[in-house]
Design brief:
single chain, 8 strands
């Protein structure tokens, strides 16, 4: 069994656990920093909209030899500058033998002159140079339809999650994760200067579906664990939710890696061999969105859900009841140890109480604790530097029956 598979089994069984929910303040701060950087790129540099949104003329020179391809940017730029000196020009190489020139709108006479000059500059026939005009209205139509689709998608997601999980707070946590993913992806586009094309817009909408899918999988496990915790009174709400995140952690990572690998291959091949185009634009959006969607479903959505629900009266009563039952359990264990010491029997070792609850960072939730046995070995499943309370780990149903002592 590989180390990663063993880690997945340990996380699912509870033999190892990371206090993800309990450290939610750290994840909030990390996410705030990432969003702040994205906003700097978004409002500082701005998005690099493609010709489909800004409008303009596009010329493509094909059948260019490898020798003529040297310094293609400078050579094509000089030709276009002579025709349109005040316009903004973008020059890129597509494949091995094609040069794409995008500039502002050119009159028909200037476009024809640019075609002839480009053909002479690169030593190709005039028929190998194509010219086309793209109006900004087409890009505006795509944007409007995308915004409508986004609004309908968010509304449907809110309704489905509210009815499926019987609480609107899960829908709110999932929507916050979605907005986080889209905002971060758009900000990275602005920071890196990646061109925004209609394919990029399609990619933005696609990552919403992936992100909500990953979040729902985690939330479904949260619901299962918390319902069991409500029935058994063995775990607080935060502990049950944190256990769900740990149990789905490896699955989420594996799913994301499997999805990212083909996208990464498409991205590398597209950049190195094919050049700019629809495939590369879509791959950029998918790669960034899938990666940040995995982060938000694990470190943002569930901690935010616990933060919202821990204020409910029912959750507070449940956590208090778990705390009281653990206190009684600890008292009985202490009495047994004292009685064993009085009878001359060796004790079980000293138990150091360490908080592992999900209510506050590094503190116990509602007084829930965890014991690390320093004398007689570890009890229950050992967690990451900590250990769950034996009552929460095994529960009363799995406790060995005690023999009545003679008086």
């Amino acid at each position: 069994m590989s180390r990663f598979s063993r880690l997945g089994n340990d996380l699912y069984s509870g033999a190892r656990s990371y206090n993800i929910v309990g450290r939610r303040t750290f994840w909030y701060l990390l996410s705030a920093v990432l969003i702040a950087v994205s906003l700097v790129g978004l409002f500082g540099r701005g998005l690099n909209f493609g010709i489909e949104f800004s409008g303009g003329s596009e010329l493509r020179v094909s059948q260019v030899s490898a020798t003529q391809m040297e310094d293609y940017e400078q050579r094509a730029g000089d030709v276009i500058e002579a025709v349109n000196p005040e316009g903004t020009t973008t020059i890129t190489q597509i494949g091995d033998d094609t040069v794409r020139v995008q500039t502002g709108q050119l009159p028909n006479a200037d476009a024809e002159a640019a075609r002839a000059d480009l053909a002479d500059e690169f030593g190709v026939d005039t028929e190998d140079v194509t010219s086309s005009f793209v109006g900004p209205s087409w890009g505006e139509t795509v944007t409007q339809r995308a915004l409508i689709a986004l609004a309908v998608f968010l509304a449907l997601v809110t309704l489905v999650l509210t009815f499926y999980f019987h609480t609107w707070k899960m829908a709110v946590a999932a929507l916050v994760a979605l907005i986080h993913d889209v905002l971060f992806t758009v900000g990275i586009y602005a920071l890196l200067g990646i061109e925004v094309s209609p394919a990029s817009v399609i990619g933005f909408l696609t990552i919403l579906g992936y992100s909500i899918y990953d979040t729902i999988v985690v939330f479904d496990k949260v619901r299962e664990n918390t319902e069991h915790a409500f029935d058994t009174k063995r775990q607080t709400y935060g502990e049950a939710a944190n256990q769900a995140v740990n149990q789905t952690f490896v699955r989420s990572v594996n799913t994301s890696v499997v999805a990212l690998l083909p996208v990464a291959v498409i991205l590398v091949v597209g950049i190195s061999l094919i050049g700019p185009g629809t495939l590369v634009d879509l791959a950029w959006a998918l790669f960034i969105g899938i990666a940040v969607g995995t982060f938000s479903s694990i470190f943002i959505a569930t901690p935010l859900l616990v933060h919202l629900r821990e204020r409910e009266l029912f959750i507070r009563k449940h956590d208090a009841q778990v705390t009281r039952r653990r206190a009684r359990h600890d008292a009985r264990e202490a009495a047994r140890d004292q009685e064993a010491d009085a009878d001359g029997m060796p004790g079980d070792g000293e138990d150091e109480l360490v908080g592992v609850g999900a209510g506050q960072d590094g503190e116990t939730s509602g007084g829930a604790g965890a014991t690390a046995d320093t004398g007689g070995g570890l009890r229950g499943g050992q967690t990451q530097g900590r250990q769950l309370h034996p009552y929460a780990q095994r529960g009363p149903r799995n406790q060995p029956k005690r023999k009545k002592r003679g008086r």
